[in-house]
Amino acid sequence: MTNESSLKILREFLLERTEIPEEKITPEASLEELGIDSLTQLELLFEFEEKLNISLPDVEERPKTIGELISVVEKHMSAKALTD
Amino acid sequence: MRRVAVTGVSIIDPQGGSTQDFFERTLLGQSSITFFQNDELPKPVASPALHCAGFSAERSIGKALASSMDRYSQLGVAAVFDAWSMAGLSVDAEQTNDRWGVSWGTALGGTHAYEHGLRDMWKNGKERLPPMSVVLGMNNACASHIAIKLGLGASCLTYSIACASAATAIGEGFNKIQQGEADLMVVGGSDNPLLYGVFRAWEAMRVLSPGNAETAASACRPFDRTRSGLVLGEGAAALILEDWDHAVKRSAPIICELGGYGSNCDHQNLVRPDQTGQVKAIKMALVNAGMQPRDIGYINAHGTATLEGDPIEIAAIREVFGSHAPNMPVSATKSSHGHLMGASGAIEAAITVLALAQDALPPTANLNDVDPKCEGVMHIKGQSIKNTNPKGAISNCFAFGGSNAVLAFKKSH
User: Fold this and answer.
1) What are the b/e assignments for B52-91, b being 16+ CB within 10 Å?
2) What domain range includes position A58?
3) Could you tell me the CATH superfamily of domain B4-249?
4) Using a CB-CB distance cutoff of 8 angstroms, which residues of chain B are in contact with residue A43?
5) Domain B260-410 in CATH: superfamily?
6) Active site (annotated) includes residue B337
């Protein structure tokens, strides 16, 4: 699993459900500035779990950017790969 | 007591047109009811229904809002945005007001969210529901979206009283303005009963009118000798109510006045309507409005087209209006739009407002042969009656559970 595919899932989700322009969906973009609230973040984590067939742990610190949100998924995927 | 002006009105046209498009079809006695079918298992639904096939949530309220709502909220918010604009207010304005509120009605609320989730689990083997399910399905979701989007701080209330939900929401919103607790209230209702479990539940009560693709439009025949029950419908309608001086001060378009509201409970039976309770509710609305029976020139009846309910309502009207009853224009517009459950009081109040404002009284569609048990009033048949210049009109809603809600509107002068 690469960073690219997580970003693709996130892009597709946001394009389908929000009016955020595609060019603004970058790793550096602030979730707050894009209007991605805590509820939408929960939906996104659910989407990752469904699409990647994983079970994400509760996060201790809320991600603030697109990149941080994706790294939650990436870290879990890396840990999972090591233990599999 | 403060006077209450109606400054905005909107109905979701099932065919995707405007409020006026829908009203004009209703004046012509044209039913918007179609034959509704789906492919749900084990037994697909195939029944006459009011289906808002022409409604696009994304087009009406935008993709972002639409994707955060269940269908009943989408319909409701779309109706409110339209009424809000008609009242000369801007949806996009960064405004908040602690003297403005919302009072909304729905019987089923977000039932769709739960039914959809359950079916997904059982049919597709899913073990859990998406995180948004709770906020999609909660029955105050629509009112909350309205309050958040329009900055309404006075109240965010939802009434769930079966068929009287929206009429009660309108009446209680009216009370808030009349008693000085708010200056403007967004009121109305929305519902989505076109759900698998809801259809099957109503079928089991043996009160749904049968029909097919050819007969669906005439499936709902209130007061007719051949009536065969009600037709389920989804939809929404909204009114903007304002303190009269508040409306005048901001030069809002005053469509008519909401003069009175009567509500009570039959306390008799869960499903059988009660003439005594209905009479009391109608009289309360008239007294509250400071109107006499002779001041009323149109009644939008509850008229669901059930064998038992229709004659009881006509008897109640005859008792209240006495010698005026034989000349009292009455119609049940459910014949055109079906039974919108918790939103029925909203669509019928909106039609009553338009009838007063445009001096055009809609007919009971499909009414050809009045049941002798329903005689004693002037049934509006065929097409509308125009230029009668009514001073006032009432809209009746009588719910399962025994709750009655009657709204009395006055022509604005």
Assistant:
1) beebebeebbebebbbbbbbbbbbbbbbbbbbbebbebee
2) 3-83
3) Thiolase/Chalcone synthase (3.40.47.10)
4) 130-132
5) Thiolase/Chalcone synthase (3.40.47.10)
6) no
Q: Provide the domain count of chain A.
A: 1
> How far from the centroid of its chain's Cα atoms is residue B110's Cα?
17
Q: What is the pLDDT of residues B74-118, one digit of tens each?
A: 999 999 999 999 999 999 877 899 999 999 999 999 999 999 999
Give the pLDDT mean for B328-332.
98
Q: One fold for both B4-249 and B260-410?
A: yes
Q: Which of B116, B302, B324, B337 is catalytic?
A: B302
Give the CATH number for residue A76: 1.10.1200.10
Which listed residue (B52, B156, B163, B397) is catalytic? B163
Of A18, A39, A45, the CB nearest to B63: A18
pLDDT (0 to 100) of residue A1: 47
pTM (2 d.p.)? 0.95
Q: Which of residues 40-79 of A touch B (CB under 8 A)?
A: 42-43, 45-46
The C-alpha atoms of residue A4 and residue A16 are separated, in whole angstroms, by 18
